[in-house]
Amino acid sequence: MTALDLDFVRARFPAFAEPRLRELAHFENAGGSYACAPVIARLDRFYRARKVQPYGAFAASAAAGAEMDEARARLAAILGVAGDELSFGPSTSANTYVLAQAFRKLLRPGEAVVVTDQDHEANSGPWRRLAEEGIVVREWRMDPATGHLDPAALARLLDERVRLVCFPHCSNIVGEINPVAAIAAMVRAAGAWTCVDGVSYAPHGLPDVGALGADIYLFSAYKTYGPHQGVMVVRRALAEALPNQGHHFNADVLHRRFTPAGPDHAQVAAAAGIADYIDALHARHAGIAEPDARARAAAVHDLMRAHEAALMAPLLDWLATRRNRARLLGPLRAEARAPTLALAHARPGAALAAELAGHGIMAGGGSFYANRAVAAQGIDPGHGVLRLSFVHYTAPADIARLVAALERVL
């Protein structure tokens, strides 16, 4: 793969042509990325020509159902899982809540689940509530100075009572990339399942979930250049063991077992545009045809990561020389983290973000539904942090503009 063609990339995001956005630098991608053109085109086509009940005999209905099936099949192929192991829901928070209700019926009092204090609340709160049913909740705690989750600390929590371990691929505050495959193997050897929150990792390259070995993997399509949907992978053995949460007549359809409400037809269909975009990136950069969707996605994943790491390095170097002004949470090395950088400062995070907006920088301030992670690192969630998050469509000029603005604001 050649270096990322940034002009090609940005031309596929209509937001960069919008008059009110093109003069701004987008550094709140962890809250939601721009949608790519194929997703917008598919959504527009569905509402114009397919907005009927899908899976019927007439042409528009059949086309609607086929496009929904296409989205599920193509994303599953990218993720290295079977098509019926992937399902859609209104958000990752909602998907996790539904899964927790299923586990509520499966687990028995005295059995245990492990959660972390590094997580976004979506992959923490619903599991912690299982304590109401007599399930033991154990907390895998990060190092308060570095934010690091030590797998050795998890090993000390595992015993025959633990049935499920929930942790993030990377935190939306700390940014450190956790070794999912190694953790999943450890947990599996202990006889338990894993639930991985990939919301903060997937925007930087969709992972090979099949290779990671996670039993559950969750992420948000609206952070991976798509529509506002949660994407949920539940591997077959676990999906069949969990009680059905959908309509009783859908109990035998694996991808419908964890969707209590009907799907958002248009947004599910539009999610195929994410696969269109990944394929377009591969075709532009690879120079050779690759028939396997999983391999195409892996190459694009590496292309995105390389570009982001190159952008991160000078920003991290600059922040390292300004430690007396702000504390960067998480690793200082680009290869160890996602480009989601949280800064603790004497001023509230929201106030810093508001001032940056005056310099054309779109950033976020607060605790970002990660109050436990912020508090565990000695920061008042009410005070919050300044969060700067970018993705592969970010340009070097955006980084330079951010640094200049930070010089003034910090």
- Given this structure, which CATH class of the largest domain is correct? Alpha Beta
Averaged pLDDT, please? 97
Strand-residue fraction?
5-15%
Number of helices: 15
Shape type: globular
Overall structural domain count: 2
How helical, in percent, are the residues?
A: 25-40%
- Order of adjacent strands in the largest pleated sheet: 2-8-7-6-5-3-4
Total number of β-strand segments?
A: 13
Q: Supply the CATH superfamily name of the largest domain.
A: Type I PLP-dependent aspartate aminotransferase-like (Major domain)
- CATH third-tier fold name of the largest domain: Aspartate Aminotransferase, domain 2
Low-confidence stretches: none
Q: Give the ordered list of helices and strands.
A: HEHHEHEHEHEHEHEEHHHHEEHEEHEH
- In the CATH hierarchy, what is the architecture of the largest domain at level 2? 3-Layer(aba) Sandwich
Report on the architecture of this protein.
- It is a single chain.
- By secondary structure, this protein is α/β, with parallel strands linked by helices.
- It has 2 domains: 6-35 and 299-409, Aspartate Aminotransferase, domain 1, CATH 3.90.1150; 43-274, Type I PLP-dependent aspartate aminotransferase-like (Major domain) (Aspartate Aminotransferase, domain 2, 3-Layer(aba) Sandwich), CATH 3.40.640.10.
- The protein has helices spanning 6-10, 37-49, 59-79, 92-106, 125-128, 151-155, 180-189, 209-212, 236-241, 265-270, 272-286, 293-320, 349-357, 371-376, 396-409, and strands at residues 25-26, 86-89, 112-116, 136-140, 162-168, 193-197, 216-220, 230-234, 327-328, 340-344, 361-362, 364-366, 385-389.
- It has a 7-stranded mixed sheet with strand order 2-8-7-6-5-3-4, with helices on both faces. It has a 4-stranded antiparallel sheet with strand order 9-10-13-12.
- Helix 2 (37-49) runs antiparallel to helix 11 (272-286).
- The radius of gyration is 21 Å and the shape is globular.
